[in-house]
From TrEMBL:
Pfam families (alphabetical): DDHD, SAM_1, WWE, WWE_3
Gene3D superfamilies in UniProt: Transcription Factor, Ets-1
GO molecular function ontology, one term from the record: phospholipase activity
Upper lineage: Eukaryota, Metazoa, Chordata, Craniata, Vertebrata
Protein name, entry field: SEC23 interacting protein
Family statement: Belongs to the PA-PLA1 family.
SUPFAM superfamilies (UniProt xref): SAM/Pointed domain
Residues covered by the DDHD domain: 535-744
Length: 755
């Protein structure tokens, strides 16, 4: 009998293998150390779930853990593509870098048990795992199994063989009589190492980044039907993009021509609804108690649209988005100083409108790139805006000249405010008393003046302006004050400006004197006038997902976007939407109203159209063919009947009637042929449609891109309307289009996927 060769050494680190039968002559008591894998704990739906680090991150953590570090307390390992930092030696925690998140525990794991409620394996503590590993090593070395191990904590581990290890624990759950049963519960499966579950462990992200995309959320604190946060939804979108890179950009990825695209979330909802504004507290006081959950949902989500149309809260939202994008950009560049790639922005729902308004008001040194915001037949909106500012500046100068008693020395003002120490700072900037009164909050911040002194200066300027306004009679003075204070960004210090007309009202009557300033267009009232901060970079592309931009521009009174208009600092603009999305609107008809142009159909990520759409077109084409064939057969039969009738009758009236019917059949045949041509023509036409020049908003290229609905969605449009507005975070087709447009600038194109 030939001795079978021993099994090859497995890549598994599950230790020695016990013979399947007692008669096998080989000794397998060779101990192999277990390969640790690093895990982190995360709260998922109010439950603690242990998730594995990627293979790349775990190997890096293990290498750092086993190395000698001169200053171990300050050793930090970057994981998850640089979005998280792990402190190995001190707190053993994983902390988020770019957003606020509770630190989570990190564990070096070797032994696991299967949970009671699901099939997920949960790691033991490192101390307990070390004890199990020592007992396992003893069992392998001595080849003694079926050992019962009792632990002080009450757990009992039974090692039947290297592949069958179970845990028993005392039962502490009382029965229906209130007594605790003696004995032990159902055994738990115990596992050593993770190699059997390699499919569940991601490979990891490369540290190099090709492109950076900032994603702004829409209304509400959650972003999908699973009530997940913006961070979780962007994580999903990033994971989808990584999978598409492996499937559609495999060759350039293997050739190291590309690496990956980083997506970072931009959050503004907390700043609006936090304690700083106090708006939630005030809204809660006036909210009716009935239908509490519905009203809470309305206050948390739908009111964001109204807040954005409020001059006070619109400024809060715009400040938060712009400063958060700049903060994330600065932090990313600080951590990646060698980065040379481009940047883009993406917005979902209301977030896309916020970005559009922000990008529309960016400043560019080149006048040719910055035409009027939305030019129309009535004139230039920017010009109107500048005329308003010039008018206010002249009003202020006139008031200031007529108010000699308010001409104060800058040194005396600072001494009065107790801020003399900042005189040198103002002198360095050549600031006198007049320019001091014109300084904005941002100006003071850029000069390095702290928050406390800025508050004092803001209060002083507000009071001086109110005194100067008292020299102007009538309502125009109050309106000038509020408009001018709004321009200087002082109005957030106090929401009430002096209203001179209020002095004639009874004491008990108080009125709001906030003067809402708007950008005026010739066709109507535009967006509320707020201060738009400059971004610290020029984005290459702007991706709007499920966007209501077109509707808002129309409601603001805009009839048409000029073909020459483009965003001042952003060359690319893509309006991506689901056909059933109730919030999404098109952009192209606002640029070329007379051209009936269908949106670009986004291809399925696996190639071609979805099957049900092809079937629908095939049935339409088949119906046209059948109709044409039926009419042709009818004409042939009628011609035969007509010839037979002519040969057997001489009635002129009958022949005339036959001729009329023959003409009708001929006309129907021509009509059927035209319909047949129309059903055959869409495919080649769609190849030509993207070549149509649609203004300069996207550099002359197409703007509107529509996703293909799923087969089940086509049965009931209303049922899937809400879901379609939230589908973009997990949409492979959306992610692939964004990747295509990003890598197109690098002359890299996706590979064709075989069906």
């Amino acid at each position: 009998m030939q001795t079978p060769p021993p099994p090859p050494p497995s890549s598994s680190t599950a230790g020695a293998i016990v013979p399947a039968g007692p008669m096998m002559p080989f000794n397998y008591n060779i101990y192999e150390a277990v390969q640790p894998h690093w895990f982190y704990c995360k709260q998922v739906e109010s439950k603690s779930v242990w998730l594995p680090f990627s293979i790349i991150d775990s190997l890096q953590l293990e290498e750092t853990y086993n190395s000698v570090q001169p200053d171990p307390e300050n050793v930090i390992v970057r994981t998850d593509g640089g979005r998280y930092d792990v402190q190995l030696y001190d707190d053993r925690q994983r902390t988020a870098v770019f957003w606020e998140e509770e630190p989570t525990e990190v564990r070096r794991c070797t032994w696991f048990y299967k949970g009671d409620n699901d099939s997920r394996f949960i790691p033991y503590s490192e101390e307990f795992s070390d004890k199990l590993e020592a007992e396992y090593k003893r069992a392998v070395s001595t080849n003694q199994w079926h050992r019962r191990l009792e632990f002080p904590s009450g757990e009992t581990i039974v090692m039947h063989n290297p592949k069958v290890i179970v845990q028993f624990q005392p039962s502490s759950i009382p029965d229906e009589w209130g007594t605790t049963q003696d004995g032990q519960t159902r055994p738990r499966v115990v596992k050593r190492g993770i190699d059997d579950d390699h499919d569940e462990v991601p490979d990891g992200e490369l540290p190099k980044v090709d492109h950076l995309v900032f994603m702004v959320h829409g209304i509400g604190p959650v972003c999908d039907l699973r009530f997940r946060s913006m961070v979780e939804c962007v994580d999903d979108f990033r994971n989808v993009s990584l999978k598409l890179l492996q499937s559609h950009f495999k060759k350039p990825l293997d050739d190291h021509a590309i690496s990956r695209v980083e997506f970072l979330p931009v959050q503004w909802h907390t700043a609006l609804h936090g304690d700083a504004t106090g708006v939630d507290r005030r809204i809660k006081k006036i909210t009716l108690p009935s239908t509490g959950r519905l009203r809470h949902f309305t206050n948390e989500t739908l009111l964001d649209v109204l807040f954005y149309n409020s001059p006070t809260y619109c400024q809060t939202i715009m400040d938060t988005v712009a400063m958060e994008i700049n903060r994330l950009y600065a932090l990313f560049m600080k951590r990646n100083p060698e980065y040379t790639g481009g940047m883009s922005v993406a917005g979902h729902s209301l977030g896309s409108l916020i970005l559009f308004d922000l990008l529309s008001n960016q400043k560019n040194g080149s006048p040719s790139l910055s035409p009027s915001v939305f030019p129309n037949a009535g004139g230039d909106a920017k010009q109107v805006r500048h005329q308003q500012l010039d008018k206010r500046g002249k009003q202020f100068s006139k008031i200031h000249k007529n108010s000699k008693r308010l001409r104060l020395d800058l040194s005396a003002v600072l001494e009065h405010l107790g801020l003399s120490e900042y005189k040198s700072t103002l002198d360095d900037e050549k600031i006198d008393i007049e320019s001091f009164l014109l300084c904005t909050i941002e100006d003071l911040k850029e000069m390095g003046i702290p928050l406390g002194p800025r508050k004092k200066i803001a209060k002083f300027v507000k009071e001086r302006l109110s005194k100067q306004v008292s020299l102007v009679s009538g309502e125009s003075g109050s309106h000038f004050y509020t408009s001018y204070a709004n321009e200087l960004n002082w109005t957030h210090i106090s929401s009430e400006a002096p209203d001179l007309s209020a002095k004639n009202l009874p004491v008990a009557n108080t009125i709001s004197s906030i003067h809402v300033d708007y950008n005026y267009f010739a066709v109507g009232t535009g967006q509320v006038s707020v201060v738009y901060h400059s971004l610290d970079f020029e984005p290459m592309n702007f991706f709007a997902l499920g966007s209501p931009i077109g509707m808002f521009l129309t409601v603001r009174g805009l009839e048409k976007i000029e073909e020459t208009y483009q965003l001042p600092t952003c060359k690319g603009f893509f309006n991506i939407y689901h056909p059933l999305d109730p919030v999404a609107y098109r952009i192209e008809p606002m640029i070329i109203p007379d051209l009936d142009l269908k949106p670009v159909l986004i291809p399925h990520h696996k190639g071609r159209k979805r099957l049900h759409l092809e079937l629908k077109e095939s049935l339409s084409r088949m119906g046209s063919d059948l109709k044409q064939g039926f009419i042709s057969s009818l004409r042939t039969a009628w011609q035969t009947l007509n010839e037979f009738a002519r040969a057997h009758t001489s009635s002129a009236q009958l022949q005339a009637e036959l001729a009329i019917v023959a003409n009708q059949i001929e006309e129907q045949e021509k009509h059927a042929q035209e319909e047949h041509k129309m059903t055959e023509s869409p495919e080649p036409l769609k190849e030509d449609e993207p070549q149509v020049k649609i203004g300069m908003l996207n550099g002359g290229n197409r703007i509107d891109y529509v996703l293909q609905e799923k087969p089940i969605e086509s049965f009931n449009e209303y049922l899937f309307a809400l879901q379609s507005h939230l589908c973009y975070w997990q949409s492979e087709d959306t992610a692939l289009l964004i990747l295509k447009e990003i890598y197109r600038t690098m002359s890299i194109h996706p590979e064709q996927i075989a069906h």
